[in-house]
UniProtKB/TrEMBL annotation:
Organism: Streptomyces piniterrae
Protein name: S1 motif domain-containing protein
All residue ranges annotated as the S1 motif domain in the record: 17-86
Coiled coil regions, renumbered to chain: none
InterPro entries (alphabetical): NA-bd_OB-fold, S1_domain
Length: 122
């Protein structure tokens, strides 16, 4: 866990859809949780189970896999950058339907800052 100031600094440098090459460092329970990814930041990256292949967990990236990931959102409580796989072979089969149902604004969010700047005080 990093300091709040470091977490805010990291968030301030991230944009939705930003691509990082990362290494899968932990797959604790295939099919149940997701995968932890080192993307070279002081905070961890994580791909949630809902974004990974559902039909065949053997299609998940294994520990040591190096591939590209996109910033999907941030989880402030866990100081974690939530990612989605860039490579469709690691992405859930129904990603387009998932986005349409749960995050229909996703395409327009790409390139937007993850953390909105705080209003300046007068």
């Amino acid at each position: 866990m990093v300091t709040q100031a470091e977490w805010e600094r990291v968030q301030g440098e991230l944009c939705f859809g930003q691509v990082f090459t990362g290494t899968v460092v932990r797959v604790p329970r295939p099919g149940a949780i997701g995968v932890f990814v080192d993307i070279g930041l002081s905070v961890g990256g994580f791909v949630d189970v809902v974004l990974l292949p559902r039909r065949r967990t053997e299609d998940w990236p294994v520990e040591g896999t190096v591939t590209d990931f996109e910033v999907w959102w941030v989880h402030s409580d866990h100081q974690q950058v939530r990612l989605k796989p860039s490579d469709p072979k690691y992405l859930c089969e129904d990603f387009a339907d998932f986005v349409a149902q749960f995050r229909p604004t996703w395409p327009s969010e790409i390139g937007e800052a993850v953390r909105r700047p705080r209003p300046s005080s007068l």
